[in-house]
Amino acid sequence: MNINATLIGQIITFAIFVWFCMKFVWPHLLGAMQEREKKIADGLDAANRAERDLELAQEKAASQLRESKEKAAEIIEQANKRANQIVDEAKEAARAEGERLVAAAQAEVEQEVNRAKEVLRKQVSELAVAGAAKILGKSVDAAAHSELLNQLADEL
Amino acid sequence: MAGNSQEYISHHLTNLTYGKLPAGYVRHNADGTETELTEATWTMAHSGQEAADMGFSAVHVDSLGWSFGLGAMLMFLFWRAAKKATTAVPTGFQNFVEMIVEFIDNTVKEAFHGKNALVAPLSLTIFTWVFMMNFMDLIPVDVLPTIFGALGVHYMKVVPSTDVNITLGMALTVFAMMIFYSIKVKGIGGFVGELTLHPFNAKNPVVQALFIPVNFFLESIALIAKPISLALRLFGNMYAGEMIFILIALMFSAGAFLGLLGGVLQWAWAVFHILVITLQAFIFMMLTIVYLSMAHEDH
Question: Per the CB < 8 Å rule, is A13 touching B63?
Answer without folding.
Answer: no
